[in-house]
Write a structure and sequence with these properties.
The chain is of the alpha+beta class. The protein has eight helices and ten strands. The relative contact order is 0.13.
């Protein structure tokens, strides 16, 4: 297997991509040893230093881990599935969506919370349809799965909307606390839609620190807003480790009328 010298892509990147494809295809399953740098150099027809760089890149991404004296192995990481459709719903238990996903996936999860109040920035005010400088409640939730930080999200709510109610303070990280929809139901404000936008990007320094991300690992960055009619009741910025999370979506396609089901 030779690299493409005319592609303009660095040889080490091409070698790393080839190994990544082999891992994705199942050629090298979780926990298995990948070829040594010398074997990769022979297979791809590259210099030994190029092969070392390729393995280092995969190690920085968290895809492989090197054990002294034994070689490099595919990381035995559990993929986490986040619902891309049907995620937000009014359920009898009223749990936040991540708890439902954790229960379905069998994860051992924990949420740590920081809560405070501040004046809304221009960007947050626009999303919440309030004036810049208006008071908002803020909660930062860091989500851990099997003790590893996976997601950090900062949630904003207009204080004028919740002041004096039972939900004036955002929930803490206690497992089983109600989600946004159930909280607002309790005060007679009924969320009827949630808008999310997802982008892939490299993490900020603060996100890298909180999520313990090595260089080369991207995040999935979501902006989310809950609405009750035309009123925005909550908005959030959420960063998720891109090397751990899979977005799972089901899209139903209606059969034309008169056609057999």
């Amino acid at each position: 297997m030779a690299i493409n010298e005319q592609s303009g892509v660095k040889p080490s990147v091409q070698v790393a991509s080839g190994i990544r494809d082999d891992i994705a295809s199942g050629k090298y399953p979780k926990g298995s040893r990948i070829p040594s740098a010398r074997e990769l150099a022979d297979t791809y027809g590259v210099a030994l230093t190029t092969a070392f760089k390729a393995v280092e890149k995969l190690r920085e991404e968290g895809l492989v881990e090197t054990r002294r004296g034994k070689g490099s192995f595919v990381s035995a990481r559990t993929e986490l599935f986040r619902q891309g459709t049907r995620r937000y719903a009014r359920t009898p238990a009223g749990h936040a969506p991540n708890m439902t996903e954790a229960n379905a996936g069998g994860w051992r999860d924990e949420v740590k919370a920081e809560r405070w109040r501040e004046q809304a920035s221009a960007a947050i005010a626009e999303r919440l349809q309030i004036a810049p400088g208006d008071d908002v409640t803020v909660a930062r939730y860091t989500w851990f799965v099997d003790d590893a930080p996976i997601q950090v999200g900062t949630q904003y709510e207009p204080l004028a909307l919740v002041r004096g109610t039972a939900i004036e303070e955002p929930v803490d990280g206690t497992r089983g606390n109600p989600g946004v929809i159930a909280r607002y139901d309790s005060i007679g404000i009924y969320v009827d839609r949630v808008e999310e936008r997802t982008r892939a990007r490299m993490p900020t320094p603060e996100e890298s620190r909180i999520l313990q991300i090595k260089s080369g690992v991207p995040v999935l960055f979501l902006t989310r807003t809950h609405y009750a009619g035309d009123t925005a009741v909550e908005t959030a910025d959420i960063a998720i480790r891109g090397d751990r999370m899979v977005i799972n979506a089901i899209h139903e396609v209606p059969v034309p009328e008169g056609k057999p089901q």
